[in-house]
Specification:
Structural class: mainly alpha
Number of helices: 12
CATH class of one domain: Mainly Alpha
Order of helices and strands: HHHHHHHHHEEHHH
Shape: elongated
Strand content: under 5%
Number of strands: 2
Strand order of the largest sheet: 1-2
CATH topology of one domain: Cytochrome Bc1 Complex, Chain D, domain 2
Helix content: 55-70%
Length: 268
């Protein structure tokens, strides 16, 4: 007993106790972080490689305008919080990566394949916030109300996109693109994210079922026949009347020139 007491009073005993405490704390920390690392590793198996691929694509294709950390630059807005749906819409329609800066990015040939688009969208989504890419079931117009979709489209969309989605000019060099080539998913994503000059129609403004009704109307308008034979932009009778008026006016001018020339020859 006396020997133990003497050892406890030894100058090195305090250091030994501290080292033993640090060793126990280290073992406990390793055990806890090991569990977390295993969980993180399981997550990396499903999402990590896709996000890593998207980060690589972002650095190569997008960082020049949007910044290395997606924080935005004078040439491009911040992408933090825009969500995967915005990326899928912009890249799947060829608007991004942009070839040149302008008030409006037109639809172009897509430069990235679907797997790359999913990876890029996954990376931007990992930054936090924003709507996800809708599933095929969410955007399918099967069973939708086309009549209600027409009413909603006329009330909320026709001012810019025309009554049948033919598009139209806006102010400051911007324009509402035609919807003739847009897929149901792209139309749904555009309503969710509000690209370019378009406002955001979130689910509290136009609910998902109403979005599908609008998509059904747009799809139905593409197959409607043109009784006159020519669509003329499908902007209504005003354009058709203008074309008829100009055609008649041109005919009258040529007729007057022909009569004048014939009268002059007869007089000679």
């Amino acid at each position: 007993m006396r020997s133990i007491t003497l050892r406890r009073r030894h100058p090195a005993a305090g250091y030994a106790v501290v080292l033993l405490g640090l060793l126990i704390a280290g073992l406990c920390y390793a055990a806890v972080t090991g569990i977390g690392a295993a969980s993180a590793a399981s997550q990396r198996v499903s999402g990590g490689p896709l996000i890593a691929e998207g980060h690589y694509l972002f650095i190569a294709e997008c960082s020049e305008c949007h910044g290395l950390f997606s924080q935005g630059t004078p040439s491009g807005p911040s992408l933090i919080g825009v969500g995967a749906a915005a990326v899928d819409f912009q890249v799947s329609t060829g608007r991004m990566p942009a070839k040149e800066l302008g008030p409006e990015q037109p639809r172009k040939v897509v430069t990235l394949h679907p797997q790359q688009i999913r990876a890029l969208a996954a990376y931007i989504a990992s930054l936090g916030g924003g709507p996800a890419i809708p599933t095929q079931a969410e955007v399918s117009p099967a069973g939708a109300n086309t009549g209600l979709g027409q009413q909603l489209f006329v009330a909320d969309c026709a001012q810019c996109h025309n009554f049948v989605g033919a598009g139209g000019a806006l102010t400051y060099g911007k324009f509402a693109p035609p919807l003739t080539k847009a897929t149901p998913r792209q139309i749904f994503e555009a309503m969710l994210t509000g690209p370019e000059a378009m406002p955001v129609f979130n689910d509290t403004t136009i609910n998902p079922q109403q979005k599908r009704d609008i998509i059904a109307y747009i799809a139905a308008s593409r197959t409607e026949p043109n009784p006159g034979g020519f669509s003329l932009g499908r902007v209504g009778p005003v354009t058709e009347g203008l074309v008829a008026f100009l055609g008649l006016l041109l005919f009258m001018v040529f007729a007057a020139m022909w009569i004048t020339a014939k009268h002059g020859n007869a007089h000679e």
